[in-house]
Write a structure and sequence with these properties.
Strand order of the largest sheet: 1-10-9-6-7
Structural class: alpha+beta
Radius of gyration: 41 Å
Largest sheet: 5 strands, antiparallel
């Protein structure tokens, strides 16, 4: 019955705490024996105060109690110092406990009982069993086996001290010979069974501690992700930009705690406002970090660059050096001119782009102008598109998480439904339009899990 090698600090702490509980159990049992002894002497008077058995029993109780108290002090110190008990302490304590009943059988006389029958006519056999059972709390199978072995050996030794002899082959055994042998075998078997039980208890305790440690680590990761989410959300614009002739709103909800989408807007030195939206491949903490990097590069590039194309090329070069193989980012920017109808639009891999005409009640879907950022060292793109927006017209920039969200039968929400929802609320503010679109997608999904990040920006001409 080999003992599993468990080096977990938490397990060894639990081991010491269980040992402390066992010691309290033993001390409680000894206190009960002491009370019974006092009652016998002073109340029911089945024993006299000058009886050698009384003083012998008292000395054994005190000896065991002293040993247990010393062990308790060692355990408390080990818990305080986060150290382990020396193996000899376990061995010494177990040996003392398991042999004490045999000392009582051998040296405490019993009235009206022949010496050879004293190992049989004694309640101390129950004390053996109690100590063996309590040894399981030490969570060490070998200690339970040692306890049973020492109990059996010391019991036989005490019986031999009193004149018992083991049965001989070929000679009929007397009642005392067979009964003592059976008791010794029972004690040894009890130790083996206790060892097997201890092994199972040990496995369950270790599994419970491992699960608790895993849960603790998961909680720590979850906390870190919550912090990352709050930081990422704080990077998103908190207020809509103020620009004459336009109303602009944006919204983002990652599929995990963090995501690879973001939207932003920034006022340029000439009074124009540039609105951006990006989607880094994947979702989670990695894409979230890259999205934050992309946002920083974009803000710096739009400050120093004179044209959208130049800004995109600068962002592509900076971001490309940070992206690992197989990663890229789709990116779209719209420059709004205050007091005029023109919106300049450029997309690096992000599409389709949706332009709604209020006068014709029609959506136009535009493709991306070039490849996503980070694929090629230099930007490969068509010139920006210049849109003329009239009253009620709008531009919708959205990530594919909206129209690719599937319901329980695998059907996608689709572009047509998305356009219909925008059309229903075309007279509403952009913030309300995005909220209604999200509600429609959630209703359509019918409880399926969000698989991709959701980000949308609406630029509406007033």
């Amino acid at each position: 019955m080999a003992e599993a090698n468990i080096n977990s600090t938490a397990f060894h702490t639990a081991e010491l705490q269980s040992e402390r509980l066992r010691i309290f159990g033993v001390l409680g049992f000894l206190a009960l024996l002491f009370v019974v002894l006092i009652v016998r002497v002073s109340v029911i008077q089945t024993a006299r105060v000058d009886d050698p058995r009384v003083w012998g029993s008292l000395c054994l109780i005190l000896a065991v109690a002293g040993t247990e108290y010393g062990m308790l002090r060692k355990v408390e110190r080990s818990l305080e110092m986060e150290s382990r008990l020396a193996p000899y302490l376990w061995f010494f304590s177990t040996t003392v406990e398991a042999s004490v009943p045999a000392w009582a059988i051998a040296f405490l006389p019993s009235q009206n009982v022949d010496l050879i029958y004293r190992p049989l006519a004694t309640p101390l056999l129950l004390v053996f069993a109690i100590f063996i059972i309590l040894s399981t709390l030490r969570l060490k199978p070998w200690i339970s086996i040692l306890s049973g072995s020492v109990a059996a050996l010391s019991y036989v030794t005490a019986a031999m001290h009193l004149g018992w002899r083991p049965p001989e082959f070929g000679t009929p055994a007397t009642l005392a010979q067979s009964a003592v042998s059976l008791n010794a075998i029972t004690l040894l078997t009890t130790g083996l069974v206790a060892g097997a039980i201890t092994r199972e208890i040990r496995k369950h305790v270790h599994a419970a501690l491992r699960e608790a440690e895993t849960r603790r680590k998961l909680d720590a990761v979850q906390h870190d992700l919550q912090v990352a989410r709050s930081i990422q959300q704080s990077l998103l614009p908190q207020e809509s930009p103020q620009i004459s002739g336009f109303e602009i709103a944006g919204w983002n909800q990652p599929a995990d705690e963090t995501g690879g989408d973001y939207f932003d807007w920034k006022s340029l030195p000439d009074g124009k406002v540039v609105v951006t939206l990006a989607d880094v491949t994947g979702h989670g903490i990695g894409p979230a970090l890259l999205a934050a990097v992309c946002r920083a590069y974009a803000r710096a590039s739009f400050t120093v660059s004179q044209t959208l194309t130049a800004a995109f090329d600068h962002i592509n070069q900076a971001l490309g050096s940070d992206l690992s193989s197989g990663r890229f980012a789709t990116f779209v920017a719209a420059v709004c001119c205050p007091g005029c109808e023109e919106v300049e639009l450029l997309s690096a891999g992000h599409g389709p782009l949706f332009v709604y005409s209020s006068s014709s009640d029609h959506f136009t879907e535009m493709k991306a102008h070039g490849l996503p950022l980070g694929i090629l060292p230099s930007l490969q793109s068509d010139p920006p598109t210049h849109l003329q927006l009239h009253s009620g017209d709008l531009v919708l920039l959205a990530t594919d998480g909206f129209f690719e969200w599937e319901n329980e039968v695998g059907e996608q929400f689709g572009i047509a439904r998305m356009e219909d929802e925008i059309r229903k609320f075309r007279d509403s503010a952009p913030t309300e339009m995005i909220a209604k679109l999200y509600q429609a997608v959630v209703k359509f999904s019918n409880g399926t899990k969000q698989q991709d990040d959701l980000t949308a920006v609406i630029i509406k001409r007033l």
